[in-house]
Design a protein that fits this description.
Blueprint: H1 9-21, H2 24-31, H3 35-49, E1 54-56, E2 61-63, H4 65-90, E3 97-103, H5 105-110, H6 112-122, E4 126-132, E5 146-149, E6 158-162, E7 167-174, H7 176-182, E8 196-200, E9 209-213, E10 216-220, E11 226-229, H8 233-241, E12 246-250, H9 251-259, E13 264-265, E14 273-275, E15 278-282, H10 289-300
Parallel strand pairs: 3-4, 3-5, 8-11, 8-12
Antiparallel strand pairs: 1-2, 5-15, 6-15, 7-12, 7-13, 7-14, 9-10
Helix pairs in contact: 1-2, 1-3, 1-4, 2-3
Length: 305
């Protein structure tokens, strides 16, 4: 697709995506396009403009000096284009388009299933794409409209609105059979003598288990027979149900097994509560119509604890 001046608009989009993401593979993950197609689009744009926009090495991809100057102009052009499309949306009976959300695993499992089906039913012309990522993320560079994170992991200079239950807590549990064999901990430090089913973020350290009671905070470094990444946390729950050890996760994640009696609460007076997540997005003048519809819908949505 080209604009009236003859500049390759798809190339502009590809260049902006690659420059923001810092690489072709990263931009491919953010856009859903292949790295090779992005590279071809940028090369065509460079050939048409007669300047090099990106410096490419085997390890890095970075905008040239000219590329950096043009990047801000191109970003402004794309924002104006999106705003123009949204203007057309405002004259439709219902908003249409794609909404891309970047969320952690727990939000994908515990928050979105409670709101997305109703939202999709209310707005049949909106398509939602969910990108699951537990790391700190630049949602603009990742090609996302908005993200969901907790307050200690929110990006700066973003608008943040509450989404989901406003209080959540971590719960600790084990199978009754395991506790019958190994005893029931009475203090968080007792966990040091137990088999703990630990979790870690991608490439990161083991996640500490934190407990709180009457102002006393205790942090435990879990150790045990199983460690899983947070994207496969169901494995830890299954292992706990099977009697392999003690698990420490969001209460909502463990609640079905607790309700069925497959797991028994452990150290419940010490369970630490925290503020629920936030939906965050850039505070720009033109909010895309699908995102604006989602913001308004989730504000009216009745969340239960």
């Amino acid at each position: 697709m080209t604009n009236p001046t003859g500049t390759d608009f798809a190339g502009v989009q590809a260049f902006v995506a690659v420059a923001r993401a810092g690489g072709f593979r990263e931009a491919a993950r953010a856009t859903g396009l292949s790295a090779s197609s992005l590279s071809d689009s940028v090369k065509r744009l460079e050939a048409r403009m007669g300047v090099r926009l990106l410096n490419r090495t085997t390890r890095t991809v970075a905008a040239t000096e000219v590329g950096l100057l043009l990047l801000k102009r191109f970003e402004s052009v794309l924002e104006d284009f999106e705003a123009t499309m949204d203007l057309a949306n405002e004259h439709r009976g219902t908003p249409a388009g794609t909404l891309t959300l970047n969320v952690p695993v727990n939000a994908a499992r515990l928050i979105l299933p409670r709101i997305l089906p109703a939202f999709l039913a209310a707005y049949p012309d909106i398509r939602v794409e969910v990108v699951v990522d537990n790391e700190f993320v630049d949602i603009l560079a990742a090609g996302c409209d908005a993200g969901i994170r907790y307050d200690d992991r929110l990006e700066k200079d973003m608008v943040a609105v509450p989404i989901g239950p406003r209080r959540q807590c971590f719960a600790t549990a084990a199978s009754p059979a395991y506790l019958d064999r190994h005893g029931r901990p009475e203090h968080p430090r007792d966990l040091l003598a137990h088999a703990c089913l630990a979790g870690r973020t991608s490439g990161g350290p083991l996640a500490a288990w934190e407990f709180e009671r009457e102002g006393e905070v205790v942090r435990i470094e879990p150790a045990g027979p199983l460690t899983v990444q947070v994207t496969a946390i169901d494995l830890a729950v299954s292992a706990a149900v099977a009697g392999s050890g003690i698990v420490h996760l969001f209460e909502d994640w463990l609640q079905p097994a607790l309700d069925r009696g497959e797991l028994e609460p452990v150290l419940q007076p010490w369970w630490q509560s925290f503020t629920g997540p936030f939906l965050y997005y850039p505070g720009r003048d033109h909010t895309p119509a699908p995102l604006r519809a989602f913001i308004d819908f989730q504000r009216r949505f009745r969340w239960t604890a």
